[in-house]
C-alpha cells in the first residue's frame, strides 16, 4: 500500500516494520520460552483490609527473553491467545503454582491460596476441566488452594458451556474469582449465573476512588452488592494510604496493589510473608 501511494521508502517506516518483526519473533520464540526456562511466575500479596494479614496472592506471568529482556504479559498474552499457545502456557502456569504451593506448605505453617489468571481462549477447550484435574493430581495439589481468575468477557461466547466447565472445576475444589469487575460493559446478569466466589473490583475504580465521587459511589455499590451475594471482595490497584483508608470505611474484605507490595519472586514473598511472624 505504501508503494502504491508513491510516497517512497520512508513510508515503510521502521516503527511499523520493527513492531511487525518483533511480533513475529515473539510468536516464534514464545513457543519455546517455557522449556527454555524463560517463563517465571511472580506473586503479589493480597491482604485483609482490616487485619493486614496475608489472605492470598495472585500469580502473574513474566517472560524474561535472553536478548529482548523483560516482556510484559500485556504484550505476550495476546500473542499466546492468537497462536493457541495459551493452552500450553496456561497449563504450565497452573502446574507451576501447584509446585510452589507444595514447596511452601512444607516450609510454612499456613499458606494461603494462589490465584492464577485464565484466558477466555483457554476456556474454550472442551477438555479444560480434565486437563486441570490431571495437573493438580500430578502435582499432588489441593484445588481448594487455587483460585481461578476469569474476566466477564468469558461468558459472551457460550455462556452455558462456560457455566458447565466452571461447575465442574468448582466440584473439584477450585474457587473462582471474577477479575476486572466493572471494566468495559459489565452485564450484571453474568453475576447471577456464574458460579463465583470472589469479585475483584477493577483498578480503574481505585485510581479515582478518592478524587471522583462517582467512582466512590460505584465502588461502594459494588462492595455492598458483593456482600449481599456473599462473595469476597478484593480491591486491586490500591496505591495510596487514602485509598486503603476508604476501603476500610467501605468494609472491603481484601486489598491488593503497590501500596501493599509489588508482584515479587516466590523467594521474596516467602521471606516477607510466609516465614516471618505474620504481620
Ligand atoms: P490482571 O490480571 O488484571 O493483573 C493485575 C495487573 O495489575 C498486573 O499487571 C499487576 O502487576 C498490576 N498491578 C498490581 N498492583 C497494581 C497497582 O497498585 N497499580 C497498578 N496500576 N497496577 C497494579 P501485569 O503483571 O503486567 O499483568 C497484566 C495482565 O496480564 C494481567 O492483568 C492479566 O490479564 C495478564 N496475565 C498476567 N499473568 C497471566 C497468566 O498467567 N495467564 C493469563 N492468561 N494472563 C495473565
Ligand atoms: Ca488477575
Ligand atoms: Ca485485574
Ligand atoms: Ca485481566
Automatic annotation (TrEMBL):
It comes from the Bacteria. Residues 23-277 form the EAL domain. This is EAL domain-containing protein. The chain holds residues 415 to 693 of 695 of the full protein.
